[in-house]
From TrEMBL:
SMART domains, sorted: HAMP
Residues spanning the membrane: 12-33, 284-302
Protein name: Signal transduction histidine kinase, LytS
Native source organism of the sequence: Ruminiclostridium papyrosolvens DSM 2782
Alphabetized PROSITE patterns for the sequence: HAMP
SUPFAM superfamilies (UniProt xref): ATPase domain of HSP90 chaperone/DNA topoisomerase II/histidine kinase, HAMP domain-like
Length: 578
């Protein structure tokens, strides 16, 4: 029986075809969704980065303007008089000059909200002038530590005591230290207020980062730790861009912009839920499309299964039942579609098949029985004449074995002549063959030996045609060992398993030639009905009629010198008794 695999069924092919059509459409939708999502994210990223970059550019311009005022102050006349000519100036002139310098510094401070204080440290007079606190003794530590490092480029912002300074100085010829230093303290509160403009969402924040300082608009105690976690989550901090970071089990959208001129970085962070609001609708429609696609696939599969696969499956199951020999199957239906027509034709086919098989089968059985009767009637009882001659001889000489001999002979002919049944158990057939060998042993007791094996128990009740084993043994006597003057040997053995039984009859006669053996083998293989039927061919045909074409006689030369006849009985599936 050929079983239909799932991948070979019409239902699976229809579903696969449908999937081949809809999956590319779904993939296209996913591609469009991802493309739109990337576009929106890209636009949001560009917008936020542009805002951060604009802020840094504005801050750069403001710092640059302050630096110009600072550089301009380096050439201030009052400042240079104090640094160079202070020795020839009296105290009044020095005081007036310091006052005018302070006013200049106050003007610089007031010119920008980012300037918190402007200081000038004048080394020759050991004074520090501040826009906030006026004139004081020089702040020597600040003077020594607020130098611009060698190689520092850009705005030259110095971090000193957690404060940010713009520092510049006036060189003094070959002196080791400059005559004066001008530093402008940047207003970190103003920077924080400027950063606050970016905090449009709850939980958002903005941070300015310098190499040694962090300026944030938020004042939480753990703000520095939080910002450090943001920095650790970023893979690239040197380039402008955006990154998604997960901090304390919450997702953030981080915008990063860098200023090489200020040597600062601006970080803006806000909860991801706010930044992704514009693309929520994209996700909703993507899920709607996905659910719709799944529902369409399910509905199509169920409808195809119900209206096509089930009717086809019912038809296939019915054909399999017919294939297994069940000719009583019938499909009940009330449909008027194409399957209804197929069901009706199937029922009519089974009905006609039943009728034809019944006719052909009955005819074949009658023909087989007629042929069996005919073949059994052809068995030549020439053994009868030899037996009568043996009785005559034994009676004349007064042989004491006459009584057992006639008893065995009576059992033998009673078995041969009864017609109560066509088939008998294998055990009865073997017992009959043993009776025959006992008779032959009485005739040739001094010249032959007979060894009879034991039949497997599972085959003793097997129904077989009568007279299939004894004629083979008789043939071995007649053509094999009967003419041997001594050392005649006849072996009868049984080999069997669950599938087949082999009855092996061997003798050590040597009269048969190779040509005769070949002719006998060809005769057994010839299926023509016109061939003259011998005793051996009689048994071969009867076994095949009952047990099938795989059974029958197999003739070969025995290893003990004579002929080897194997009676092969192959049991068909489900056949135990014939």
């Amino acid at each position: 029986m050929v079983k239909l695999k799932f991948q070979n069924s019409i239902f699976s092919r229809l579903v696969i075809t449908f999937l081949i059509i809809i999956i590319p459409l779904y993939c296209l939708e996913i591609y469009i969704y991802n493309s739109a999502l990337r576009t929106v994210k890209s636009e949001i990223s560009k917008s936020t980065v542009a805002q951060a970059s604009f802020y840094l550019e504005s801050l750069e311009k403001e710092i640059e303007r302050i630096k110009i005022l600072q550089y301009d102050c380096l050439n201030d006349e009052q400042l240079n008089k104090l640094a160079i000519r202070w020795k020839i100036m009296n105290e009044y002139e020095i005081s007036q000059t310091l006052l005018q310098l302070k006013q200049r510094l106050v003007a610089i401070k007031n010119s920008s909200i980012y300037a918190s204080d402007v200081n000038v440290h004048i080394l020759p007079i050991e004074k520090t002038v501040s826009s906030n606190s006026g004139v004081d003794d020089i702040h020597i530590n600040e003077y020594n530590d607020i130098f611009v490092p060698i190689g520092l480029k850009g705005a030259q912002i110095i971090n000193y005591n957690d404060k940010l300074y713009l520092s510049t100085f006036q060189k003094s010829g070959g002196a080791a230290r400059p005559l004066f230093i001008i530093d402008i303290e940047l207003n970190q509160n103003a920077l924080k207020q400027a950063l606050a403009q970016f905090n449009t969402y709850t939980g958002s924040g903005s941070v300015l980062i310098t190499p040694k300082n962090i300026i944030a608009n938020k004042s939480e105690e753990d703000n520095t730790k939080f910002i450090q976690q943001i920095l650790l989550s970023m893979k690239q901090k040197d380039n402008d861009g955006t990154v998604f970071a997960s901090i304390e089990d919450k997702d953030y959208y981080v915008v990063h912009s860098n200023s090489s001129y200020l040597n600062m970085s601006l970080l803006r962070y806000f909860p991801q839920e706010y930044i992704l609001k514009p693309i929520v609708n994209f996700k909703i429609w993507a899920w709607v499309f996905s659910v719709a696609a799944i529902l369409i696939i399910i509905i199509y599969s169920l409808s195809t299964y119900k209206f096509m696969h089930q009717p086809l499956n019912e038809l296939v199951k019915s054909f399999r039942k017919v294939e297994n020999g069940d000719l009583k199957v019938s499909i009940n239906h009330d449909s008027n579609n194409e399957f209804g027509y197929l069901y009706k034709c199937f029922n009519d086919m089974v009905k006609n098949l039943n009728m034809l098989i019944d006719q052909v089968y009955n005819q074949k059985i009658l023909m087989q029985k007629a042929e069996l009767k005919h073949l059994q009637s052809q068995i030549n009882p020439h053994f009868l004449y030899n037996s009568f001659f043996m009785i005559n001889t034994m009676a004349r000489i007064g042989d004491e074995n006459l009584v057992p001999f006639t008893k065995h002979l009576g059992e033998y002919f009673r078995f041969v002549t009864r017609n109560s049944m066509d088939n008998i158990s294998l055990e009865e057939e073997i017992n009959h063959a043993k009776v025959y060998t006992e008779i032959q042993l009485m005739r040739f007791s001094k010249r032959i030996q007979i060894h009879f094996g034991e039949c497997p128990n599972m085959y003793k009740d097997l129904k077989v045609p009568r007279l299939i084993l004894q004629p083979i043994i008789e043939n071995a006597f007649e053509h094999g060992i009967e003419k041997k003057k001594n050392s005649g040997l006849l072996l009868v053995n049984f080999e069997g398993n669950e599938r087949e039984l082999r009855i092996i009859v061997e003798d050590n006669g040597c009269d048969i030639t190779d040509d005769e053996l070949e002719n006998l083998q060809n005769l057994l293989e010839n299926n023509e009905q016109e061939v003259e039927t011998t005793g051996t061919l009689n048994i071969h045909r009867r076994i095949r009629l009952v047990f099938g074409e795989d059974s029958g006689l197999i003739i070969s030369r025995s290893v003990i010198g004579g002929l080897k006849a194997v009676l092969k009985i192959v049991l068909q599936k489900g056949v135990e008794n014939v």
